[in-house]
Amino acid sequence: MLNMTETKSIAEVEEQIVEEFELFDDWMDKYEHLIEMGKSLPFIEQKFKTDEFIVKGCQSLVWLHPDFENGILHFTADSDAIITKGMIAILLRVLNDRTPDEIINAKLEFIDKINLKEHLTPTRANGLVSMLNKIKAYAEQVKLTRSHKS
Amino acid sequence: MNEVLQEKKIIDVEQIRSQFPILNRKVNGQPLVYLDNAATTQKPQAVLDAIQKYYSEINANIHRGVHTLSQEATDAYEYSRKTIADFINAKSSEIIFTRGTTESINLVASCFGKKFVNAGDEILVTEMEHHSNIVPWQLMCEERKAVLKVIPVTDSGELMLDELTKLLSSKTKLLALTHVSNTLGTVNDVKEIISLAHKNGTAILIDGAQAIAHTQVDVQELDCDFYCFSGHKMYGPTGIGILFGKEKFLNEFPPYQGGGGMIKEVSFAKTTYADSPMKFEAGTPNIEGGIVLGEAVKWMKNVGVKNIAEHEHELLHYAIAQLKTIDGVRIIGEAKNHASAVSFLVGTNHPYDTGVILDKLGIAVRTGHHCNQPLMKRFNIPGTVRASFAVYNANEEVDKLIEGVKRAKKMLS
């Protein structure tokens, strides 16, 4: 669903998350926050938790369902691991309800600033890197489809 | 600790630990607790020194030159082969240097397949095999139009031996089986199984990757046809491993790869091949790895394989007992004969989550499916947390693991 109130830019949301995480002195508080984020967000509808929408990591699984309406991409997702879910929550806070161009151009450098980059390396094999690639691929795909139509 | 207990200790853990420089490092600000030894072990100073010595003093290509360095390097390489052969009670000609267990198994699958396997024949593996003891046989079966059959595992993580007996038929050409399960820690009764296979005229390959650092292996006593292991899981370097094969098979096998070093005479009309082990070692090998693996074996012999096994047995059973005191912990794999590794789950927590929090505490464990996807499917779990032990681990480290698991449980609940 398209949010008609004024939305913050990707940079603004990233800044907000960095400030939020700066409040934590030690890793335990930070991870507890991450776990809470993982628990509290509404995730994917059960009917989309199928092989069609699965992103297989070696360590954990991710499901990702895209929606495209009024030029805006909306994703719902889930994972079988709670820390991965927390990471999804952070990433979707930044990338959800954006135009394909915004998603394609997102650098996501804030992940480094909040010291959670270790979860976004291919060697972690938790499905998150593949999920990000899929998000970007969906954005490229809808952009291409639209430019063909116009 | 009181004196009586001190006296009973088989291993002076502090003295052993002092030989492993990496154990002094910190991870995430915490002293490293390394419990991922089934993946790879750390290396003692004697092994590190041997690597340095090889490159500083005798580096040269082997089996080729008449010059002194080449002779010295060749002697060291062949001396190491002999050391390893003695370690498992084999002949030097039956010891082939490979890149590791995986390559050893692939070599046998390829050569045995070409020579002995035809359409409709059967290869037996077990449900608890590592992927590297499944996939090479699948590839070979596909190529030879043979059939892969699987011996199932019980709820406690043991092989169903009566199923094994039923599955052995006149078509069964080879049985490939792990000595110790990398996930469950189950020690299979390989001697009994080898004897069953041989009575049926079936050849047998033992994946010894998880056994070689924890138990005394005697290939003659076992009477196995092939035994495979990796250097890096026994305090030696990575990229080097061993295939033991009985001469009668190795002599019959076609070469695995072509190249320098494996030939008798080359002409465009016909090339003849060297005898084993040279026949299977094409190209310049991992000379350093080969030599240093011999040093790792010597180091293990000095400590005593029996002492290592006893110490690890104590650690393992202490860890299992302590894990069981935590509410909601489920041990995956409770075979009567259990070695070196314990797999577990905490309530409904995902192993990845537990692993991430343990890492933050400086505790290195393995999480995931451990290259055992069919086994995970059989237990209907996404994976496990696995703690695996080596001779340098201490009871205090088990205590830290237990504290860590409790903390992870609290954070994730």
Give the tally of β-strands of chain B: 17
Q: List the uncertain runs of chain A.
A: none
Q: What is the domain total for the residues of chain A?
A: 1
The low-confidence runs of chain B, each spanning 5 or more residues with pLDDT under 50, are 1-7
Helix content of chain A: 40-55%
Number of domains of chain B: 2
Brief write-up:
The complex is a heterodimer of chains A (150) and B (413). Chain A is α+β, with helices and mostly antiparallel strands and 150 residues long.
Q: How does this model look, in words?
A:
The complex is a heterodimer of chains A (150) and B (413). Chain A has 150 residues and is an alpha+beta fold. Chain A has one domain (10-149): Alpha-Beta Complex (Sufe protein. Chain: A). Helices cover 49% and strands 13% of the residues of chain A. In chain A, a hairpin with a 4-residue loop joins strand 1 (54-56) and strand 2. In chain A, helix 1 packs across helix 3 and helix 2 crosses helix 3 (82-95). In chain A, 31% of the residues are buried. With 413 residues, chain B is α/β, with parallel strands linked by helices. Helices cover 41% and strands 16% of the residues of chain B. Chain B has 15 helices and 17 strands. Chain B has helices spanning 3-8, 13-17, 45-58, 68-87, 101-116, 135-144, 161-167, 190-199, 219-222, 247-252, 287-303, 305-324, 351-360, 373-379, 395-412, and strands at residues 26-27, 30-31, 33-34, 95-98, 122-126, 147-151, 172-178, 203-207, 226-230, 241-245, 263-265, 272-273, 329-332, 341-346, 363-364, 366-368, 384-388. A 7-stranded mixed sheet of chain B has the order 4-10-9-8-7-5-6, with helices on both faces. Chain B has a 4-stranded antiparallel sheet with strand order 13-14-17-16, covered by helices on one side. In chain B, a hairpin with a 6-residue loop joins strand 11 (263-265) and strand 12. The radius of gyration of chain B is 22 Å and the shape is globular.
